[in-house]
Specification:
Layout (H helix, E strand, L loop, with lengths): L2 H12 L1 H31 L2 H6 L3 E5 L11 E2 L2 H6 L4 E15 L5 E8 L12 E4 L9 E5 L3 H4 L7 E4 L2 E9 L10 E4 L1 H8 L5 E2 L1 E6 L5 H11 L3 E4 L1 H15 L2 H30 L1 H9 L4 H34 L10 H27 L5 H4 L1
Parallel strand pairs: 4-9, 6-8
Antiparallel strand pairs: 1-11, 1-12, 2-10, 3-4, 3-7, 3-11, 5-8, 6-9, 7-8
Helix pairs in contact: 1-11, 2-9, 2-11, 2-12, 9-12, 11-12
Length: 377
Amino acid sequence: MPLVVKLACRNLVQDRLRFVATVVGIVFSIVLVTVQLGLYLGFERTVTTMIRHAHADLWVVPRGTKCFEDPSLLDERKRAAALAVGGVADAVPLLIGFAEWSVTGGGTTPVFVIGSTLGAGGLRPWNIVVGSIGALAGAHAVAADKTYFDRLGVTGLGDTVAIRGDKAHIAAVTDGIRSFTTTPYIFTTLDRARAYTGIPPGRVSYFLVHLAPGADTDTVRRQLAAKLPSAEVLTPAQFSARSRSFWLFGTGAGAALIAGALLGVIVGTVIVAQTLYSSTKDHLNEFATLRAIGAAAGYVNQAIVCQALVSAVIGFLFAACISAVAVEVTKDSALPILMTPELTLGLFVLTVSMCIISAFAAIVQVIRIDPMRVFMS
């Protein structure tokens, strides 16, 4: 082990209580940042779940639509105009809307109904654990996620309820299709969704456009936009970005998560800076001795930076373990904490940077050391 590293480690562990306080400060800061940024990434992913699972090449949406859950409507007759555009293989109508679910035993709860064709081009339920897609073709058939069974007042496949006064029975059960708004998603056919939501015939929410093989997306998008001036034509990436922007920043949720992460960085930096500063101040005579026997100021500064790096690595390892537990605990929740390799690497860099910046206050003290003080003490 290089002498400068050994010196740094011994300085850290000489006062174990102070060292523990430093590590705890780093762990608290990084866990807070991890949770806030992980929630941010999880929120980003959750709000675009339906867009990602639609597998459409383009979305035709009502002009001014802010997000997938925006219940604006289009004239279904516009589908013919979309199909007339070269390169368009299909334009599948999709209907969404809120409805009132009558809970068995009394009471009601709001649900979010999604109506589409049962073919591969529509927005169909996934992760089906009981029942099948084909079963949704039956009379009054719907699909619901088992996560919400308690709220919906059902126990499983075959249960019969009422949606907006119209009969419905569970024909398929999914697992893990969670709504970040906590309103259960209910999948059914297009016509049945109209009955459940009260939306009149001839009106739809979106068209899921599927392109013919070899068609150029940008060219078809421009032609569709020209054919449908009262609507907008968006790629899945554009629609996802618009939904994320609305829910994260239009509602203030994203700003709150980012502010929490910044608070964690500030708290951690202050704690580490205060600890390193106090440690350096307590060892000024030792540092003065090093200077007096010929050690360069840069060498002493390296020792302080090494202290910061050792603290950063140890603190990050503890924080990573705690964060992994948090990710596991929340993975099935409505808003999971999402960890990616990029985020993990970024957090490590952040931890190291935070600790090195914190070392500056201590380095300033070392620079001001007068080597002669060792002979005057």
